[in-house]
Specification:
Blueprint (H helix, E strand, L loop, with lengths): L1 H15 L2 E2 L5 E3 H5 L4 H5 L3 E3 L5 E4 L4 H9 L9 E10 L11 E10 L4 H18 L5 E6 H9 L5 H12 L3 H10 L4 H11 L6 H11 L4 H19 L6 E3 L13 E6 L8 E5 L3 H4 L7 E7 H10 L12 E5 L5 H13 L4 E3 L6 H10 L4 E5 L1 H6 L1 E6 L5 E5 L3 H7 L4
Parallel strand pairs: 1-5, 7-8, 12-13, 12-14
Antiparallel strand pairs: 2-4, 3-4, 5-6, 6-11, 7-9, 9-10, 10-11, 14-15, 15-16
């Protein structure tokens, strides 16, 4: 199941031109402490190495990729499209949708501020979910700049902005209002934010019209709203036909987002299966030149758990076409030798290891879609042969174990 999801992600890497890279599992604490958000900082697995350096198991991957852009790839021409499939670690209380070790598949696009780049992240997300089979997915889309620009009007520093947005992301509206009030944000602005947080829906014209009315006196925030409108229109023109819930007051826990943001989920599940957004200052934060970026991280582990729980697909190993059965008194060595001979010819063989009778073994083979049963007993071992039974024609022949050509002929592979 995990491999199927990874294969779908890698197929989209290829379709859209993303180069897959790997980043270290063990990273410096400071890499994530700067802008990954309070919730992640509290849940990092951290420790010291023998040199006394403060290290962590990576809690997410975008910061690591941005560091690579700022150092090893700083001379590469833009845009740069990078993808990854990686395990991450957070000290969460294990529950549905949360694991201390989990896998993500990410798309990161650096070097463009165009709405085309933002829309592409929605396109690849839709493509991956459709390939996996989650065609009933939906997007929840916002723009963190709408709230940030409004708070900037009252000289609210970035650290406090981060705290407020983190609270809003965790549905702690009352606590966010208290922080804003204590920092001198006017009642009108607080009421504006409260109204934006509660405004969302699939009727895009109505939502954008109402949001524009709410933000009529906040010019910079309105510019961010217009940017969001354009991204939605470009994404729809680019084939993103998934339902989109527009949420002008949407916030996400990661502090490095400064523009378009989104979550992707499926009906009936409270947690999101994918999330991302724009982070135009992250590369610069790590010492690189100013480089806009946008990306997402698809929750492979969550999707896998959902599919298994919903019985959308029951995982089973692929069954070879040949079942090799040893009957009483044949030596285990000859069974192993016969299996190795067949496999050396490029044939996929499953060895029956539980002592089934021939009739039961044949029934098992038929149930699992196998085409042939190879039988070895005391006589076959003595004569260096195998008995090969075609389950479709019911024909059975004996063949010298050393005669590869006749074996292949009997299997119809010649």
């Amino acid at each position: 199941m995990k491999r199927k999801i990874e294969d779908a992600i890698r197929e989209v890497f290829k379709m859209y031109g993303y180069l897959e890279i790997e980043t270290p599992t063990v990273e410096y604490y400071e890499l994530f402490a700067v802008k990954s958000g309070e919730e992640i900082r509290e849940r990092m697995f951290e420790f010291e190495d023998k040199a006394g350096r403060r290290l962590v198991l990576r809690p997410e991957v975008t910061a690591s990729v941005a560091r690579v852009i700022s150092t090893k790839l700083k001379a590469w021409p833009l845009p740069i499209r990078l993808g990854y499939i990686a395990d991450c670690y957070r000290y969460d209380e294990p529950q549905w949708g949360r694991r201390r070790r989990f896998w993500q598949g990410g798309f990161e696009l650096f070097g463009s501020k165009s709405p085309l780049a933002d829309a592409e992240i929605l396109q690849v997300s839709r493509e991956v979910f459709n390939k996996i089979g989650l065609k009933e997915h939906f997007f929840k889309i916002g723009h963190v700049g709408i709230l940030r620009k409004l708070l900037e009007e009252f000289k609210i520093d970035e650290r406090t902005q981060d705290a407020v947005l983190s609270m809003l992301d965790r549905n702690m509206l009352d606590q966010a209002v208290d922080v804003m009030s204590n920092r001198g944000v006017e009642r009108e602005a607080i009421d504006t934010i409260k109204e934006l947080v509660q405004l969302e829906g699939r009727n895009h014209d109505r939502i954008f019209r109402r949001a524009s009315e709410i933000l009529s006196t906040w010019r910079k925030s309105q510019a961010c709203l217009e940017n969001l409108m354009e991204i939605v229109e470009v994404a729809k023109a680019g084939g993103v036909d998934s339902p989109m819930i527009v949420s002008p007051g949407l916030a996400r826990g990661l502090e490095y987002y400064d523009g378009f943001i989104f979550e992707q989920g499926v009906p009936g599940v409270r947690v999101s299966f994918n999330g991302g957004g724009r982070y135009d200052r992250l590369v610069e934060l790590f010492g690189g030149k100013p480089t806009p970026g946008v990306g997402c991280a698809i929750g492979i582990t969550r999707i896998m758990q959902y599919i298994l729980d919903e019985s959308l697909e029951v995982p089973s190993p692929p069954k070879p076409e040949i079942l090799l059965v040893g009957i009483p008194n044949v030596s285990a060595k000859y069974v192993a030798r016969a299996a190795e001979k067949l496999r050396s010819m490029g044939l996929a063989v499953e060895v029956e290891v539980t002592g089934k009778r021939i009739s039961t073994a044949i029934e098992y083979a038929l149930k699992n879609g196998m085409k042939f049963v190879v039988i070895v007993g005391e006589r076959e071992e003595r004569e260096e042969k195998i008995s090969l039974k075609n389950l479709e024609t019911k024909a059975q022949i004996e063949v010298e174990l050393s005669d590869s050509r006749k074996i292949m002929e009997a299997l119809g592979e010649a």
